[in-house]
Amino acid sequence: MTPSAVAVLTAAGSGARLGLGCPKALAELAACTLVGHAASRLSASGQITQIVVTAPAAHHAAVSEALSATPGITVPWRVVEGGPSRQASVAAGLAELARTMDPAAPYDVVLVHDAARPLASAALVSRVVAAVREGAGAVVPGLPVTDTIKSVAVSADGPERVTGTVDRSVLRAVQTPQGFAWELLLRAHAAGADRAQDESTAATDDSSLVEALGEAVHVVPGEAEALKITTTYDLAVAGLLLAETVAGADAADTGSPVTSQPTTAVPTTGA
Ligand SMILES: Nc1ccn([C@@H]2O[C@H](COP(=O)(O)OP(=O)(O)OP(=O)(O)O)[C@@H](O)[C@H]2O)c(=O)n1
Ligand SMILES: C[C@](O)(CO)[C@H](O)COP(=O)(O)O
Q1: Polar residues composition bias: which ranges (predicted)?
Q2: Is the complex ipTM higher than 0.95?
Q3: Cα of 105 from ligand 2 centre, angstroms
Q4: Which of 66, 75, 108, 258 sits CB 3.0–4.6 Å from 33 for a disulfide?
Q5: Is 4 in the pocket of ligand 2 (CB under 6 A)?
Q6: Which atom of ligand 2 is nearest to the CA of 116?
């Protein structure tokens, strides 16, 4: 049976902290939307056979248009409505993948990736898929933490007070794409479904739902380029990183839809 890795690309957030007045996934970096950057890199990995993108209900068409306008997305994609939390949005993407799966050709790997991490490279996508196929049921990219981390007591009427210093040698800042054996992620989302309706109770990533099942989660090296865009500062940093990549590796295939050469339009639907 031919193995098939599929992806859920989350883009249904509001982008309140970015504050641009549009969903974060539609913010632009070098004349391409964040969701377009992320999808084109998933596609460029050559590992993914289809992408389901979650969008805010009111911006379904705009997200589709953004993807249609992005050069370099050669794998089939489609857009579904997201939910009230990231966890709910991923669940909606998984439901769409499950609904349309050919039982004769089941998926072996599913990636969950954030449009908010537009510069995660095609190489990182491949690394995560490979680790799942080598037998890790759940895989996250992670980077060592470089700051000294303190725990604090928070008080309503005074400054925070430090209660301890955490051993940072055992900490990792985890990123997306996160990769999973298909059946395992379905099981993890089913078990944690009661948390998904509210962002305050929802899991902030998918691997924590796997942890809650008592299953192992493995770490592969992450990358600085896979930074999460939360504020305008992050967007500015990503712009600098992208400019450096384009200048330094114009000839290399990084999966970026942005090059200094004219690009050719590609098919615009998930078909
Ligand atoms: N209900 C939600 C909330 C978030 N996301 C996605 O999950 C990723 C990480 O979320 P976050 O960075 O928190 O994005 P926003 O929710 O858009 O940001 P903010 O909290 O500032 O509004 C993003 O790709 C976002 O689009 C989603 O698909 N559905
Ligand atoms: C999934 C994630 O990108 C891993 O670091 C992160 O947890 C998303 O967090 P957010 O609170 O939704 O921004």
Answers
A1: 256-271
A2: yes
A3: 31
A4: 66
A5: no
A6: 3
Does any ligand 2 atom lie closer than 6 A to the CB of residue 74? no
CA–centroid distance, 219 to ligand 1, in Å, is 23
Ligand 1 pocket: which of 10, 53, 119, 232 to mutate (most atoms within 8 A of CB): 10
pLDDT (tens digit per residue) in 117-147 = 999 999 999 999 999 999 999 999 999 999 9
Quick one: average pLDDT of 41-70? 98
Note the pLDDT of residue 253.
Answer: 56
What are the tens digits of pLDDT across the range 221-249? 999 999 999 999 999 999 999 998 877 76
Q: Which one of the ligands is nearest to 80 CA?
A: 1
Domain 5-144+170-248 carries which CATH code?
3.90.550.10
Domain boundaries, the chain: 5-144+170-248
Q: Does the pTM of the predicted model rise above 0.95?
A: no
